[in-house]
Design a protein that fits this description.
The chain is mostly helical. It contains 14 helices and three strands. Strand 1 and strand 2 form a beta hairpin. The longest helix is centred in the C-terminal third of the chain and has 26 residues. The chain is elongated, with a radius of gyration of 27 Å.
Length: 384
C-alpha cells in the first residue's frame, strides 16, 4: 500500500568530488537525535491490533455465556454448545445472542444513554457483536487494515484513531437511529479506512502510483458504504466513524514531506555546515499544515456539537428529512420500518402462554416462574 521513504546513499565519483566533503549524517545531531531518526525509519512491530481482536472475541464469549440460550429459549441453534448455543436463527440469523443480552452487556440504547445517564454505552457497544458472522467479518477487516497502519504509525496513533472513530460512529448513530439498539466495531473500522484515505492525501508526495492507490481505496470505501443501505445495518455508525477517522488521519498520520525524508540528516546541521542551505526543505509543507489545522478544528467543533445535541435528546431526523435514506433505502424486497414487538403473556402454573400482538401467533411454553428477560426473548422469537 504505502512505501516508506528511505535515505538515499549518495556515491560520488572521485573526479567530481567537491573541495569540502558533505557532513556525515551525525554532524550537528546529538546521539539521541540520531537514535530517534533511525527508530523512525524502522517499521513498528504490531501488537495492539491483535490484542484488540482478542478482546473482541473474549467479549463475544462473555456475551454468549450471559445469554445462556437453553435457559431462556426452547429452540436454540447448535444446542451441543450448551450455555454457548445460539439464539434461534429466526431471531438472530448472525448466530449470536439475543438483543436482551446485548443490552445487558452495553449495547447502544439511546434511551439509556440520554435518560438513563449511561453514556459509557457509546464506547461499550464498539466491543460487542451480534453474532459469529458479524465478529468474523469485522475482525478479519481489523487485521487486514489495522496491522498495516500500526506497522507504519505505531500503536498510539492507530489506537487513538480506532477508539475515537468508534465513539464518533456511536454518536452519529445515536442521533439518527433511536428506536433500535446497535453494536459492532464497524464504525471504528470505517475510521481506519477514513484515516488511510486522509493519510494518502496528506502525505501525497511520498507515494508512488498515487492515482491508482486513491482510486482503489475510494472504491473500497464507497462499496462498503453502499452495503450499509441494506436493512438492519447501522450505516450511520459507518458514516460517523469514517468522517471521524478521515479527520483524525490529517491530525495524527502526518509525515515529513518527500524531500525532507530523503535528506533528513541535513536539517539538524548548522547552516554553516550545510552544503547548500537554500535547498533545505521544511519538515511539513504549507498544505500539510493547513489540512492539519482545519481537520483539528472541525473535529473538535463537530464532536462538541454532536454531544450537546445527543444529551439534549435531539433527534437528528427532525432536522434532516432525507438522512434516514443514508442507512436504509426501502425497496419492493424489504422495508426499512422497524416495528417494536408486543406480546400478551399469562402464567398458569408451569405453563407460560404468549400471544404476539403483531401477527396473532400464540404459543405455550413449559417455563415456571419466567422472568421478564425470558418473556421478552420468547416474544421476539414468536413475532419474528
Amino acid at each position: 500500500m504505502s512505501r516508506k521513504p528511505n535515505e538515499v546513499e549518495i556515491q560520488i565519483h572521485p573526479s567530481m568530488a567537491p573541495a569540502q566533503p558533505l557532513p556525515p549524517p551525525a554532524v550537528g545531531q546529538s546521539p539521541a537525535q540520531v537514535k530517534a531518526r533511525r527508530r523512525q525509519q524502522k517499521s513498528h512491530r504490531p501488537w495492539l491490533v491483535p490484542v484488540m481482536v482478542i478482546a473482541n472475541v473474549v467479549m463475544f464469549l462473555i456475551t454468549m455465556y450471559v445469554n445462556d440460550c437453553p435457559k431462556n429459549s426452547e429452540d436454540c441453534f447448535a444446542k451441543f454448545l450448551g450455555r454457548f448455543s445460539f439464539q434461534p436463527t429466526k431471531e438472530n440469523p448472525l448466530l449470536g445472542p439475543s438483543s436482551t443480552s446485548l443490552q445487558k452487556m452495553g449495547a447502544l440504547d439511546v434511551d439509556k444513554v440520554v435518560h438513563g445517564h449511561q453514556g459509557w454505552r457509546l464506547m461499550s457497544c464498539v466491543w460487542l457483536h451480534a453474532g459469529v458472522v458479524h465478529i468474523l467479518a469485522n475482525m478479519l477487516c481489523l487485521l487486514l487494515i489495522g496491522i498495516r497502519l500500526e506497522q507504519e504509525f505505531g500503536f498510539l496513533k492507530v489506537g487513538a484513531v480506532y477508539v475515537i472513530s468508534g465513539l464518533g460512529g456511536s454518536v452519529l448513530s445515536a442521533l439518527f437511529i433511536q428506536s433500535n439498539i446497535s453494536v459492532g466495531a464497524s464504525g471504528a473500522l470505517f475510521g481506519l479506512l477514513g484515516a488511510m484515505l486522509s493519510e494518502l492525501i496528506m502525505n501525497w508526495t511520498i507515494y508512488a502510483n498515487k492515482c491508482a492507490a486513491l482510486m482503489t481505496l475510494t472504491f473500497v470505501i464507497v462499496l462498503n458504504l453502499a452495503i450499509g443501505i441494506l436493512p438492519h445495518v447501522d450505516n450511520f455508525a459507518h458514516i460517523g466513524g469514517f468522517i471521524s477517522g478521515f479527520l483524525l488521519g490529517f491530525v495524527f498520520l502526518i509525515r515529513p514531506q518527500f524531500g525532507y525524508a530523503r535528506r533528513g540528516f541535513e536539517y539538524s546541521t548548522p547552516v554553516s555546515a550545510s552544503p547548500d542551505p537554500r535547498r533545505r526543505k521544511r519538515k511539513f509543507n504549507a498544505c500539510q499544515l493547513s489540512l492539519w489545522a482545519v481537520a483539528a478544528v472541525v473535529l473538535i467543533v463537530g464532536f462538541t456539537v454532536a454531544m450537546i445535541m445527543l444529551f439534549r435528546g435531539i433527534n437528528g431526523n427532525d432536522h434532516c428529512s432525507w438522512c434516514h435514506y443514508l442507512s436504509c433505502v426501502p425497496t419492493s424486497k424489504w422495508s426499512c420500518k422497524s416495528t417494536p414487538v408486543y406480546c400478551q403473556s399469562s402464567q398458569d402454573g408451569d405453563i407460560l402462554s404468549l400471544i404476539c400482538q403483531g401477527n396473532g401467533k400464540a404459543k405455550n411454553y413449559t417455563m415456571p416462574n419466567a422472568t421478564d428477560s425470558q418473556i421478552r426473548g420468547l416474544c421476539t422469537q414468536l413475532c419474528s
